[in-house]
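Subject: Interface between my chains keeps coming out wrong

I've been trying for a while to get a sensible model of this assembly. When I model each chain on its own everything looks fine, but I need the whole thing in one frame so I can look at the contacts. Pasting all components below, labels as-is. Any help appreciated, I'm running out of ideas.
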Amino acid sequence: MQTTESKSESLVNATWEKRPLIVSGPCSAETEEQLVQTAQQLAATGKVDMLRAGIWKPRTRPGMFEGIGTKGLPWLQQAKKITGLPVTVEVATAKQAEDALHFDVDVLWIGARTTVNPFSVQEVADALRGADVPVLIKNPVNPDIELWMGAVERIAKAGIKKIGLIHRGFSTFGNTDYRNSPMWHLAIEMKLRNPGMIMLCDPSHICGRRDTLMEVSQKAIDLDYDGLMIESHIDPDKAWSDAKQQVTPERLIEMLQNIIWRKEDTNSKEFHSALEKLRQQINHLDDELIQLLGQRMKVAEHIGSYKKDNNITILQTTRWNDIIGKAIEKGDKIGLSKEFITKYFDAVHMESINHQKKIMDE
Ligand code: PEP
Ligand code: MN
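Reply #2:
Try treating it as a single job with all components included. I did that and got this:
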C-alpha cells in the first residue's frame, strides 16, 4: 500500500511514541556552529530524541539577549539535516508559528510566559489551524491549572491532534531552592485531567542550576512522566541565556545513565499480589480515617451547640494554635512533615468550623 506520510512526518510520529522521550539542546540558538555542534554531540550519544533551541526568547527584563530570531531557522534545518534529530522551537506569535512551519520545524512548543496569555495562545492556535504539527504546552508561570487547560483546549480546537505538556515549575515570590517551584501536585492534577497526553518535565527551568537537575529528573521519572526536556550547551558557562542551568552534552548523558528508569507496571505475579495486599491495608486505613473524621465532626457539633447556648465565638485562636503546635511535634516524631500536618489540620479545622456554624445557624 502506498503511504503518503513523508520521511520527516514518520520520524516525528515515531519520536512522539518513544518513552522516555528525551529533548535537549541549548536554551538559545546563538550561532550556527554552536547549534550544529551541540546537536552533533547530542546525536552521538544515541540517547537524545529531539533537538530544542529557542530563537525567540521571552526575557523577563529588557536588555538581555532576546534570541537570534528567524535567522536561526535555517540553522535548525541544518542541524536536523546533519544529525537526523527532529527539532523543536518555542513560538509565541502567529508570525513565529508560520515561520517555524515554513522551515519545517517538527514540533512547536508554547512557553510559560505565553501560556498565561489567552490572547497569545489563541493567536498561535489560529495560525496553526489545519497544520499537522505536534505542540508541547508548558505550564503557565503562575500556578493556575485552568490557564494551562485553557491553552490545551485552544490548541486542540484548532485541530492539533498531538498535544503534549511540559512541567517547568511555577514562579513564587522569594523562593530559594528552585528557580521555579515545582508544585508537583499541580502537574499530577494536570496529568490526571488529560489521560493519554504526554507529560515531560523540564528540570532546567525548575532548578535554574546544574547541581539539582538530577534529583528533579529522578522525581519526574518516579512520578511516571513520559520524558525530559533538559537544556544543554557545548560551553554552558558562556551561554547567552540561562547559563547557570545548562549542562554539556557529556554531563547530560552521565545524568541520563544515572537515572533509575521506572515503568508504570510489570507482568510479575508476585509483585501484583504483594501490591494488592498493601493496597487492601491502605483501603482499610482510609476507611478508618473517614470514620474517625466523621466522629470528630460530631464532637465539633456538640461543642457548637454549647458555644451557641453560651454565646461564645466558633473560632478561638489560642486553642487552635495549641492543637496545631502539639500535632506538629507529634507528627515530627513519626516522620510526618510540618507542611503536611499544617495542611491536614487546616482542612480538618475548616470542616469543623463549617459543622459548628451549621449548628449555630439552626
Ligand atoms: C525555555 O525553554 O528556554 C524557556 C523560555 O522556557 P519557559 O517558557 O519555561 O520559561
Ligand atoms: Mn531557558
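Reply #3:
Confirming on my end. The mean pLDDT is 95.
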